[in-house]
Every structure is written in C-alpha cells, then in structure tokens.
Design brief:
A 7-stranded mixed β-sheet has the order 5-4-6-3-2-1-7. Helix content is 11%, strand content 44%. The protein is mainly beta. The chain has a single domain (19-142), classed as Sandwich (Jelly Rolls), CATH 2.60.120.1140. This is DUF192 domain-containing protein. It holds the Pfam family DUF192. InterPro entries: DUF192, Saro_0823-like_sf.
Length: 144
C-alpha cells in the first residue's frame, strides 16, 4: 500500500505533535524536557521548521525504526538548535551545539543512532549536558 502522506516541500510549521517527558541524566543533575515525538517521515521532514520559539524545557525527539546514521540540516529552521544524537544504549553519542538557522550544511551523527533530539540552542552547554550522558524516555524504552 502506498503512503498517502504529503512529502512536498514544507511551507509552514506543523501542528504540535504528541509529547512525552524525556530526562537527561548528567553529572550536573537530571534535566527534564517535554518533547514532541516525530515518528512519521513527514513529521521528521518538517521537524522544527518555521517555528519561531523553542523554550529551554522543550524539544523534539526523532525516533528511527532501526539504528542508523542521522543527518540533519537547518533549512527553514528559524531558531538555533542543539542537536543531540542518542546511541542505541540510550547514551548521548554526539552533540552539535547551536546549529545555525537556515543552514543547508549537513549535521551528522557520525555513526548509527536510535534517535535524534533537537533542543533550544545553547541548552546543552547551559545545563552541563555532555556526550555519554544517559537519556531516559518512554519511547526509547519501547525500542530496547
């Protein structure tokens, strides 16, 4: 059966997606975020595009069906983002801090990841979140 999902070029922000709480456990403490879940190809294609604000306690979690290299970009994204790549063991594999709005440069996980998390630009540095920190979320636990 063919997908009827529209994969044309996005022209506006998508509606708010279903959310869950995600916690990053770091040396500086437990940091809880309310994250939208980008599960479908269209939701993942649009991501944070055209949004003008991302609060420090919010984000978007991109869940991959199987571990894969994740390549993101900032086309039509109007605010800086920290892009956090989550390894299959639920630890942070890499962080791209303050990705430049509207940039077409590819931002790579440099290896297979099970999910990618977008947070407001500067949040990881401000909260002391680093590579190796543990990520806890119901959607990640279901993938184990």
């Amino acid at each position: 059966m063919a997908s009827t999902e529209d994969m044309s070029e996005p022209t506006q922000a998508q509606p708010v997606l279903p959310r869950e709480n995600l916690t990053i456990v770091s040396a500086s403490g437990r940091h809880v975020f309310s994250v939208e879940l980008a599960r479908t190809p269209r939701q993942q294609q649009v991501g944070e595009m055209f949004r003008t604000n991302l609060p420090d306690n919010s984000g978007m979690l991109f869940l991959w069906a199987t571990p894969q290299q994740s390549d993101m970009w900032m086309e039509n994204t109007l605010v800086p983002l920290d892009i956090v790549f989550i390894a299959p063991d639920h630890r942070i594999q890499a962080i791209a801090e303050n990705a430049v709005p509207r940039s077409l440069a590819h931002i790579s996980s440099h290896g297979p990841v099970s999910a990618t998390l977008e947070l407001a630009g500067g949040v990881t540095a401000k909260m002391g979140i680093t590579v190796g920190d543990k990520v806890e979320a119901p959607s990640l636990e279901k993938k184990s």
